[in-house]
Amino acid sequence: MSLRVAVVGSGPAGIYTAEALVKQSADPVEVDVLERLPTPYGLVRYGVAPDHTSIKSIANYLRKVLEQPGIRFLGGVTLGAEVSVDDLLACYDAVVYCTGAMVDRKMGIPGEDLLGSVAATDFVNWYCGHPDVSPDKFELDSPEVAVIGVGNVAVDVVRVLAKTAEDLRATDVPADVLDRLADSQVKAIHMIGRRGPEHAKFTLKELRELGEVANADVCVRPDEAVVLGGDFPRQVKGNIDVLRSWSERVPAGRPRRLDVRFWLRPVEILGTTRVEGLRLERTRLSQDGRVVGTGEFETLPVGMVLRSVGYQSVPLPGVPFSTETMTVPNVAGRVRDREYVAGWLKRGPTGVIGTNKSDAAETVRTLLADAPSGAAGSIDDLLAERGVRPVTYDDWLAIETAEAELARTLDRGERVKLVGLEAMLAACGRTVT
Ligand SMILES: Cc1cc2nc3c(=O)[nH]c(=O)nc-3n(C[C@H](O)[C@H](O)[C@H](O)COP(=O)(O)OP(=O)(O)OC[C@H]3O[C@@H](n4cnc5c(N)ncnc54)[C@H](O)[C@@H]3O)c2cc1C
Ligand SMILES: NC(=O)c1ccc[n+]([C@@H]2O[C@H](COP(=O)([O-])OP(=O)(O)OC[C@H]3O[C@@H](n4cnc5c(N)ncnc54)[C@H](OP(=O)(O)O)[C@@H]3O)[C@@H](O)[C@H]2O)c1
């Protein structure tokens, strides 16, 4: 008898888990990868920036996993809607939760809910064409925008704001989003770090890329580029050197300006119904290394605040969840009898795509050592009884073909994303039920 495993979520963690199951098990394994969307690959499709085409090509590797014998893709099946934990435990010997981290963290300051105060999660979903966000959700009608946070997501968001629509024409950005980007009124982008250059979370390659955007002058204030002490890891030293070199640049009068700021924390987003400004307080580190305010304030006249301060997982119905770590408590991937976890839901929203491979391998080692069993029912019968017809891998290929066709029609790159469940399902001859 084969080991039957349900993997919930088809992002990198889910697909690497499926791959590890097939590779590591001495016995035959059948893996169903359940996904709430009609499309696989999680943040590789709906997170990785559209202009990072070489990173996006990881999808070609993930695709080969889904095409392996013994692995099935079941799209349009949400744990917590079409199926429950009990359903999965009845149909499979083991379940691995890989649902990532889909929502934004809050800053906890006044004004965070004003119109124009936008979570990076939403903004990224918008330019990536995620079906949860309509293409007309954002209008870039403010000349000044603040981006809070100095991690790699903030860098992505800033780069998309700084580039021209023409720069993004050959990418898969949805057509309506590209139109909005072409109409952008943004002239100044302020990227705000609450600590110093030596504490920034962005990586050197990504930072350097910002300095290469032809449409924008990148500015750093010399006093904010100063870093005391010197024994930093190579990456950090590289960041500091790049930022210091930018502080010596003379602006070339390009259409947009990017100000990378440090030692400032947001204290209030100003406005009555919509964002009219951002009040910041200068910071320093306390003796015990905490960020504290100095009592010196400044206000930026921005009409949009993009909060890029990290992603966060959400609890799955019926699955243990720690509201302290915002992850599923586990030991080497084991949650409870026959239940496992991998990826961002397991360890929190940090790490690049490749990090999920070793993470998934650990979970699969634990699972195979446990040799779980208990599958009795059939998921196909259960879904059929409920009138749920999953999106198959072949359906997904039809969506891909339609996206390539759209790109040809619009004379753009390899593909242009279809937006909305209706359009995606229509591409594979289906309708929304
Ligand atoms: C904006 C952004 C850009 C990034 N860019 C890069 C980059 O350029 N390079 C890099 O190496 N790393 C990048 N990363 C990090 C990388 O994307 C993550 O490490 C990785 O995607 C995490 O994998 P995951 O499978 O845990 O989660 P995800 O990729 O989020 O996958 C989770 C999947 O679960 C599905 N799901 C959620 N809930 C349910 C449910 N209830 N039922 C069924 N399915 C469900 C989701 O739809 C999704 O498909 C980026 C991250 C972000 C946020
Ligand atoms: N190209 C790539 O490889 C790529 C692209 C995108 C994402 N990723 C990866 O995906 C993961 C998530 O990235 P991320 O950028 O979302 O998270 P991140 O790396 O954790 O960065 C979050 C940023 O937000 C700041 N922040 C947090 N709370 C704040 C608050 N209340 N006020 C002001 N600032 C606050 C943090 O500052 P502090 O440090 O002071 O807390 C930090 O600068 C990372 O591992 C990243 O490397 C990789």
Structural account:
- The chain has 433 residues and is α/β, with parallel strands linked by helices.
- The protein has helices spanning 12-24, 43-46, 53-56, 58-66, 85-91, 120-128, 152-162, 175-182, 204-210, 222-225, 234-247, 344-347, 355-370, 379-385, 393-409, 421-427; strands spanning 3-8, 29-35, 71-75, 94-97, 103-104, 117-119, 144-148, 188-192, 216-220, 256-261, 264-270, 277-285, 291-300, 304-307, 311-312, 334-336, 339-341.
- Helix 1 (12-24) crosses helix 13 and helix 7 (152-162) runs parallel beside helix 9 (204-210).
- It starts with a strand and ends in a 6-residue tail after the last helix.
- The model has no long low-confidence stretch (mean pLDDT 97).
- Bound molecules: flavin-adenine dinucleotide and NADP nicotinamide-adenine-dinucleotide phosphate.
Descriptors:
single chain; 433 residues; alpha/beta; six-stranded mixed sheet; 16 helices; globular; binds flavin-adenine dinucleotide; binds NADP nicotinamide-adenine-dinucleotide phosphate
How many strands, which pairing sense, and closed or not: the largest β-sheet?
6 strands, mixed
Basic shape: globular
Ligand list: flavin-adenine dinucleotide, NADP nicotinamide-adenine-dinucleotide phosphate
Task: Say how many strands there are.
Answer: 17
Distance between the termini: 35 Å
Structural class comes to alpha/beta
Q: Determine the strand fraction and express it as a percent band.
A: 15-25%
Q: Any idea what the radius of gyration is?
A: 23 Å
Number of helices: 16
Helix content: 25-40%
* Low-pLDDT sequence parts: none
Q: Could you tell me the mean pLDDT?
A: 97
Strand order of the largest sheet: 3-2-1-4-17-16
